[in-house]
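User: I'm writing a tutorial on reading structure tokens. Could you give me a worked example: one chain, its sequence, then its tokens, then a sentence or two explaining what the tokens reveal?
Assistant: Sure. Here is the example chain.
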Amino acid sequence: MANKNRLITGEKLRGAEKVRRIPIKVIPTERFPEKPQWLRVRIPASPEIIRTKRILRQRKLSSVCEEASCPNLPECFSRGTATFMIMGEICTRRCPFCDVAHGKPKELDQGEPSQLAAAIKEMGLNYVVVTSVDRDDLKDSGALHFGKCVNEVRKLNPDTTIEVLVPDFRGRMEIALDVFSKMVPDVFNHNLETVPRLYKRVRPGANYDWSMDLLYKFKRCNNDIPTKSGLMLGLGEEPEEVKAVMRDLRAKQVDMVTLGQYLQPSKHHLKVERFVTPDEFEEFAAYGKSLGFRSVASGPLVRSSYHADLQMSGDLN
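And here are its predicted structure tokens:
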């Protein structure tokens, strides 16, 4: 008799199947709250959307824009930009806020680094964000593959700024830090996602202190490289908890921070507890600047890689 809990390599689990075995049960949402006006995204008609998708398909690449159902996809694809997601489309974790599929990933595509570099050159990008799924199945959590991607992009696109948005490399931090100290990105980004109190519910399998240490230890080894992190709001956190996280980030010498509204991908994901107003986001931005962040991107539609080039250059504030 087949084991129904056994994962099949390459099979994508979404919705109820994805969150079925996490520590805190997610109760399906029966009725979604109506989005306020400031969260309604107009989808522009643009040939750049078609062109960007074509390049990704031809190069067998993935974008977090599509896999995580990002609300900014139309704008970013229309501008000819994308956040590339390496190491496949299947994540080994089951975070109930994220729309990326869970399952047993396929083996790494050894040609991916060169295909990524070629796609960036073809798209003519001056600034790229490279992120990945979690690959807890690999001995180094995929750190070396990540480094190879940075290296190949750098060789073929020497004038392109490279931001990496990395997973936590749980249990393999020293390996990852060694890799990124040899194949150094221009920006090192790792998202905390939420406040410590909500970690068990929002980020099962992750650890707040571990993530903070990853940011801090990278900074200590690479003092001249900007570090960055981000939070989703609207999951039940209190404003003072958000400010406390921002203070923690500054204490770890993190340079940039992003704050955006959490949007529920499906009825089987964590529900939106509330919609944070634009005025509240502005207040967080002002507080962040008072703490000394180099840049604070805070707004309902802000995502970690949204307008990352403008945040890096300082033109966003």
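What the tokens reveal: The chain has twelve helices and ten strands. The chain has a mean pLDDT of 88.
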